[in-house]
Design a protein that fits this description.
- The chain contains ten helices and 13 strands.
- It is of the alpha/beta class and 310 residues long.
- The protein has two domains: 177 residues, ATPase, nucleotide binding domain (Nucleotidyltransferase, domain 5, 2-Layer Sandwich), CATH 3.30.420; 80 residues, Actin, Chain A, domain 4, CATH 3.90.640.
- Strand 6 and strand 7 form a beta hairpin.
- It is globular and about 65 Å long.
- GO terms for molecular function: ATP binding; ATP-dependent protein folding chaperone.
- Belongs to the heat shock protein 70 family.
- It holds the Pfam family HSP70.
């Protein structure tokens, strides 16, 4: 990557020894093109108008470049909305008649974002944002992977260094983590092809052990929640609802920590991986006159900056 004219980033992409240069908005347009093509196939019509969600912390310049990436494909951007707002819409809060305070906890593969929203009559106001850009599902996986590597080393008196075997182990760990969402224990089993005789490594992992390995990381999920409430001098009992977004919010320990913190169950009625996409679809449906509700999301300009927690 380099800077064009000293300020505009440009990516250098080498394909079969052919060097091309792409700006971030051009890279974004390539990704959008794939999504639009999928939508065209599924809807059997050409998509010309779009609603796009972006992280709440995006500034005006980042939003304009996002709009530009869509314009490069000839798309008309009807609305750009914040991801927490989209998630709240998926849960139906855009139709709430009375004032309510919503906390959106978005925990994905590599980042944690928490937003506090003020919602009334379809009007969304972001009161505070905080997050940890180095906390997510991959970090939880790494703790379990490191433990497995330690067990392998002790069992075979040899370090596992082969890249292919280590990748196989990572797949096994990811699968085990997902299974522990619904089970109290699961097995990890793999042939270690880089060891003489290709021995099989087998062990059982319990949910409790997985939680113990990640205890300190799971507790960090509460830090940005604390931060957004302190920013606006709000007590946790004043929060009407807590909605979960992102696949890592499926982890039982994460849900339990949030439940204990607020003394009530978080709202899990919407698939966490789909919440933002569903909310954006609802907004698009309303704008296109294809949704039974007439109340659309209206976002007030964000006056707060995201608090970064490590």
């Amino acid at each position: 990557m380099s800077l064009r004219n000293g300020k505009h980033p440009v990516f250098h992409i080498n394909v079969n020894n052919n060097l091309t240069y792409k700006t971030p908005e051009e890279i974004s347009s390539i990704l959008l093109q794939t999504l639009v093509a999928a939508a065209d196939r599924n809807l059997s019509v050409a998509v010309k108008k779009v609603v796009i969600s972006v992280p709440a912390e995006f500034d005006e310049m980042q939003r304009n470049y996002t709009r530009k990436s869509a314009n490069l494909l000839g798309l008309q951007v009807m609305r750009i909305i914040n991801e927490p707002t989209a998630a709240a819409m998926a849960y139906g809060f855009h139709s709430a008649p009375s004032l309510c305070y919503i906390i959106v906890v978005d925990l994905g593969g590599g980042t944690l974002d928490v937003s506090l929203l003020n919602v009334q009559g379809g009007m969304f106001l972001t009161l505070a944002m905080a997050g940890n850009n180095r906390l997510g599902g991959q970090d939880f996986n790494q703790r379990l992977t490191d433990h497995m590597l330690d067990l392998i080393s002790k069992q075979f008196n040899k370090q596992l260094v082969d890249k292919t075997d280590r990748q196989t182990l990572r797949f096994q760990v990811e699968e085990a983590k997902l299974k522990l969402t619904d089970r109290l224990s699961t097995d990890i089993s793999m042939k270690i092809t880089s060891f003489q005789g290709s021995p099989t490594f087998h062990t059982t992992v319990t949910r409790q052990h997985f939680e113990n390995l990640n205890a300190d990381l799971f507790k960090k999920v509460l830090d940005p929640i604390d931060s957004v409430l302190k920013t606006v001098l709000m007590d946790r009992q004043e929060v009407h609802d807590v909605v979960l977004v992102g696949g890592s919010t499926r982890i039982p320990k994460v849900q339990n920590l949030i439940k204990e913190y607020f003394n009530k169950d978080p709202n899990t009625s919407v698939e966490p991986e789909l919440a933002v996409a569903i909310g954006v679809s609802i907004q698009a449906g309303i704008l296109g006159g294809m949704w039974p509700l007439t109340v659309s999301a209206v976002e007030k300009p964000i006056q707060t900056k995201k608090i970064h927690i490590s």
